[in-house]
Amino acid sequence: MKAIVLAFGIAKDILGGPDITLDFPGNTTADLKSVLENQFPRLKQLRSYMVAVNNEYAQDCTVLTEADEIAIIPPVSGG
Amino acid sequence: MKAIVLAFGIAKDILGGPDITLDFPGNTTADLKSVLENQFPRLKQLRSYMVAVNNEYAQDCTVLTEADEIAIIPPVSGG
Amino acid sequence: MTTQIKISDQPLEIQSCIDWVMTPQSGGIDVFIGTVRNSTKGKKVLRLEFEAYEPMAIKEMEKIAALAFEKWPVQKLLIHHRTGTLEVGEVPVVIAVSCAHRDAAFEACRFVIDTLKQTVPIWKKEVFEDGETWVAAHP
Amino acid sequence: MTTQIKISDQPLEIQSCIDWVMTPQSGGIDVFIGTVRNSTKGKKVLRLEFEAYEPMAIKEMEKIAALAFEKWPVQKLLIHHRTGTLEVGEVPVVIAVSCAHRDAAFEACRFVIDTLKQTVPIWKKEVFEDGETWVAAHP
What we know:
The complex is a heterotetramer, with two copies of chain A and two copies of chain C.
Chain A: E1 2-7, H1 9-15, E2 19-23, H2 29-39, E3 50-53, E4 56-57, E5 70-73
Chain C: E1 3-8, H1 14-21, E2 28-34, E3 39-40, E4 43-52, H2 54-71, E5 74-82, E6 84-87, E7 93-99, H3 102-119, E8 122-128, E9 131-134
Parallel strand pairs in C: 1-5
Antiparallel strand pairs in C: 2-7, 3-4, 4-6, 4-8, 5-7, 8-9
Helix pairs in contact in C: 2-3
């Protein structure tokens, strides 16, 4: 599937901008992460990171659609 | 001994004013309390009360002198 | 000075309290603000009247502050207490604590207000429509 | 409304935050104020830069507020978070909680800041003299 992926914090640095468009096989969060980590290995050096779908933290099994707002959430540090 | 006793909060109501002069036998806090409770039995209805000598909480055995600043401290309720 | 303790019959100025505790080394400030509630045990409160044995109250608050500095890495600590007549919504007490990290700020602030309510010679009278009571005086 | 949540690139106004949570039913207000510290792990910090995924951050803060209302008898709860560049001494976050009694105010306030730091998509970059780091990004 094709997805626009938003990136914040250090993920923006790693992906080289606030969003990228990805074309990847499969349609789950796990599929997306696998492609992202392959293309941007520095993601794997993070303490952890989550994927958010429509402003909610997603599970690896969450199924994505092209209409979803998808974002990479590196470790948060607000407050 | 002779002492001026300051009173605050409900103790001021019980003693009828912000201070009284007492002449009592003995010279300890316990002696003072015994005379006070005799003269003002409503003191015994309080949850508790302390005597302060020179701005410090006193023990029953604390010896008083006429130069001391003596105060009755009913249960505190600041804040 | 790292401690500021004050008893006053004038309205407490919360923003100045906070400004005073803030330092370039601070990462977290916890502030407790007591406010006059309009009811107690379901009964309408018209106002509160606070009375302090001032020199002793200051001394006891200084002891509490010293203990807080011993127990936690506190940077600055402020205790301001009102006296006199306070209407609903007015502020009897402000406690502000600055620390490098927030845990110590929360813990020290709570320790100060909890201990103040146990040891500092200040008294509060609740005035109702049909009478008045010195708080905590009787069992 | 009993909850006010805001993300803003303008300086947070602490006094208005406190005024907003105060109600005639309140007996105690606890306020946590985060401040930019001039050093971290012994290293001089020049400034912090905060970035938020705003719609999701608002949503997560709303969840935290809802949880606080479930867990404690909270009257009003406010969370304001700054974004953009903040100098030493500036305020990234203000959390204010009003309750009838102080224990709930302290506990709810601490819960909100602790949980905010775990779940709300806001990121902080520390800028040093010789570089910069996204806080908590790496193990």
